[in-house]
């Protein structure tokens, strides 16, 4: 029994020591320090944006001529002699690539006819035809069908548009015989009439040049029932007439000196200039330093190319905002060196699948650069000679989507 007590005592003494050894504190493992990885630099995104325009930009003038013909009562069954001459004049503004508003005025002759019943009742009405004139004034909204459903392409020559408009219709100068007919009982009145009018239709434009489009237009007009001097319905009703005209649309120059609604490409950073003042100031400072550094590299070496050259995006022919700084460097260089003339050499990206010699990009690019030098920096055209080759490879390598489309060779004056 005594031995049992001794064994129990030893167990009581051993258990706390064992427990103490099992609960001995151990320092936690230190986590490995995270390795700092610099953020990846995203390449600036190239985006397409429309040029900033002001109210005085993108105006055009329309001049069209053709025929109109009445679709009112008693006109069914008559031949082509119902077609009468018409002239349309208009002025409009393009508010987007696919939407414009036009104010137009038209004047033309129209022909009306007496009813068959009236002709049968009285031989004094002769053939029953009479003439009058119509002046129409409309405010119209035009929407491009092609540009709504197909991607932007400045080279596209054809456009189809639908238009709707509202305005006034003025009928006047009815033949004198109309007054005689009214005495015979025929309900025709030669009084002048002013009616509300609506019209809509389709027009097709073909780009003939940078400044002009050829236009084919078909219109359908709805006017008050008495516009032709005859009111058959005691309640409010409509008569109608149609016209077909052809002509020209002349696009006026905008403050850039161009005549079309253009899309340009800008670096994403550039678009921040109007939204973040701090970013804008930083970009402006960097731009000034970059400009001064590029300007300092130019030296007169006759027969050699200037370091400055004008780049264009693939398929584009106009000088964007960034490249205008390079234009300014060239103009300042000519101002500092009056004994230097320049040969402006234009190139197409002949090695690029996106550009074809048939697009005449080299010719159009060099013309755009010369125009900018003369218009915006008063460089004398006599100091600029033009040369272009639609199949030659540009002297500077292509970078991304940029093609160095125009370079400057220095020659002695």
Description of the molecule:
The strands form three sheets. The protein has an eight-stranded antiparallel β-barrel with strand order 2-3-4-5-6-7-8-9. A four-stranded mixed β-sheet has the order 11-14-12-13. A two-stranded antiparallel ribbon has the order 1-10. It is built from seven helices and 14 strands. Residues 41-46 and 267-283 have low confidence and may be disordered. With 413 residues, the protein is an alpha+beta fold. It folds into two domains: 58-251, Porin (Beta Barrel), CATH 2.40.160; 295-412, OmpA-like domain (60s Ribosomal Protein L30, Chain: A, 2-Layer Sandwich), CATH 3.30.1330.
How would you summarize this macromolecular structure in one to three sentences?
With 413 residues, the chain is α+β, with helices and mostly antiparallel strands. 22% of the residues lie in helices and 36% in strands.
What are the defining features of this structure?
60s Ribosomal Protein L30, Chain: A, alpha+beta, 14 strands
| CATH architecture classification of the largest domain | Beta Barrel
Alpha-beta classification: alpha+beta
Largest sheet: 8 strands, antiparallel, barrel
Q: List SSEs in N-to-C order.
A: HEEEEHEHEHEEEEHEHEHEE
CATH level-3 fold name of the largest domain:
Porin
Which term fits the overall shape?
flat
* Rg calc: 39 Å
Strand content: 35-45%
Summarize model confidence as the mean pLDDT: 81
Find the count of extended strands (DSSP E, 2+ residues): 14
Count of DSSP-assigned helices? 7
The N- to C-terminal Cα distance equals: 131 Å
Flag low-confidence runs.
41-46, 267-283
């Amino acid at each position: 029994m005594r031995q049992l007590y001794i064994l129990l005592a030893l167990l009581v003494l051993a258990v706390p020591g064992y427990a103490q050894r099992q609960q001995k504190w151990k320092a936690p493992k230190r986590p490995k320090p995270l390795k700092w990885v610099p953020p990846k630099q995203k390449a600036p995104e190239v985006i397409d944006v429309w040029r900033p325009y002001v109210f005085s930009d993108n105006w055009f003038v329309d001049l069209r001529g053709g025929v109109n013909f009445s679709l009112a009562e008693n006109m069914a069954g008559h031949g082509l002699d119902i077609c009468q001459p018409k002239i349309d004049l208009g002025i409009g503004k393009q508010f987007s690539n696919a939407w414009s508003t036009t104010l137009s005025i038209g004047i033309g002759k129209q022909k009306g006819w007496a009813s068959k019943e009236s002709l049968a009742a009285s031989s004094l009405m002769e053939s029953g035809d009479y003439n009058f004139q119509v002046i129409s004034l409309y405010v119209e909204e035009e929407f491009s069908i092609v540009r709504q459903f197909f991607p932007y392409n400045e080279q596209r020559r054809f456009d189809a548009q639908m238009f709707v408009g509202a305005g006034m219709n003025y009928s006047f100068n009815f033949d004198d015989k109309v007054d005689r007919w009214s005495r015979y009982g025929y309900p025709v009145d030669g009084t002048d009439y002013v009616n509300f009018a609506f019209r809509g239709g389709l027009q097709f434009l073909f780009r003939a040049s940078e400044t002009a489009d050829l236009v084919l237009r078909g219109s359908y007009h709805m006017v008050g029932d008495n516009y032709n001097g005859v009111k058959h319905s005691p309640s409010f009703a409509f008569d109608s007439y149609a016209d077909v005209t052809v002509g020209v649309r002349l696009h006026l120059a905008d403050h850039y000196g161009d005549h079309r609604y253009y899309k340009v490409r800008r670096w994403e950073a550039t678009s921040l200039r109007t939204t973040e003042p701090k970013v804008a100031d930083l970009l402006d400072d960097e731009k000034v330093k970059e400009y001064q550094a590029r300007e300092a590299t130019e030296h007169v070496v006759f027969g050699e190319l200037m370091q400055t050259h004008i780049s264009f995006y693939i398929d584009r022919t106009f000088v964007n905002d960034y490249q205008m700084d390079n234009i300014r460097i060239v103009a300042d260089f000519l101002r500092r060196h009056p004994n230097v003339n320049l040969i402006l050499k234009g190139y197409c990206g002949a090695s690029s699948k996106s550009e074809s010699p048939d697009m005449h990009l080299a010719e159009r690019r060099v013309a755009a650069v010369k125009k900018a030098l003369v218009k915006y920096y008063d460089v004398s055209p006599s100091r600029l000679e033009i040369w272009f080759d639609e199949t030659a490879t540009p002297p500077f390598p292509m970078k991304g989507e940029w093609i160095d489309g125009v370079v400057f060779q220095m020659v002695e004056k």
